[in-house]
Design a protein that fits this description.
alpha+beta, 17 helices, elongated, binds thymidine-5'-triphosphate, binds magnesium ion
Length: 398
Amino acid sequence: MPRIIMHVDMDAFFAAIEQADFPEYRGKPVIVGADPQGGRGRGVVSTASYEARKFGIHSALPISQAYYRCPNGIFVRPRGKRYSEMSQKIMQIFQDFTPVIEPISIDEAFFDISGCLRLFGSSHQIALKLKQKILAETKLTASVGIAPNKFIAKIASDLEKPDGLVTVKAGEEKTFLKPLPISKMWGIGKKTEPLFHRMDIYTIGQIAETPPDKLVSIFGKPGLSYWQLANGVDNRPVQGHNAAKSVSHEVTFMEDTNDLARLEGILFQIAENLGRTLRKKKLKAKTVNLRIRLADFQTFTRSKSTLHHQNSSVEIRKIALNLLKQFNFQGQKVRLIGLGVSNFNVGPGEQMSFLNTQNEVKDQRIDQVIDLIEDRFGKGTIRKASLLQEVFSLYDRD
Ligand code: TTP
Ligand code: MG
């Protein structure tokens, strides 16, 4: 069954909030960022309204340049608290549609809507409903991309901005990607792009047609990802905010052992439990990880991924025993043995149920999303988020 992934990204987020809060700014070029100081200001543009983009103003442009390009524009300092508040409000609206959302920055998130079509008809209708709800509750517009995977959904949401809605159906992935410039690909930035150009490759379609081993010989391991993405293949699951990343269990021996039958017996038991846990949580895993610590404390992990996600104890056991068989004990005894599974997808039953459940559950989930956003900001795991934090602390006018 092909998945249906939705990517939502707010339009000109900070600037649109300014226009929503101050009606006199609507329809006008609004530039959020540093103080232009009559063209002598330092610092950069955070974002610009679409009216301002017509003057060539965009995120990260020096504010002096922005002033030069549009001296009559409305220049405002960022109001970080207000933008966070609106971000939370939007994430809350997303929550009304699905519990499985993956926020990836202050104004965008992925959902997996594979399980919810029965309730709402089509993915197109779901997207329209979501956009309407966002507009009604925040006076902001969002752009939506719908596709069989994350990579294409993200590209699709960007294509018809602002207020866009682009759907790519299963089977149409390659045709959709073919004419697009390589700069649209994840992972291809200013350094990698010229390498492709040197190979006379300018479109994603051309990457798809290049033999993968050639790409690997030039770009290393990422070469294979480029090739897979270019061919419309991307199996990454939408990671719900409370999704565990792995489940594992390990045993440390009182006395080091080289009794293979005993090691096998332990793996057998752990595999049984892991499979049961996965099935209970309606999760499937793609990767099985065997961990072994030898008598001299050297610790090794050996992993094997299956073609498909699975939650069978038998399958986990088989893979674990195979990994054990191939392991080089270096003539040493074993101190610790562990087994785990990772690389989950969420089972279809769990993916989407429109959340008309108790408010309590909903509130809990919203809290978790907020925690997640804050976690991510704090740790700076997301480039944009950490950048935002800097912007906030520098220019916040609250
Ligand atoms: P984006 O979603 O990249 O941009 P946007 O929402 O302003 O415009 P678009 O319609 O193209 O999606 O970023 C979200 C917010 O993050 C943006 O409103 C301001 C902030 N931001 C910065 O402060 N600096 C930056 O360099 C970028 C890219 C974003
Ligand atoms: Mg945006």
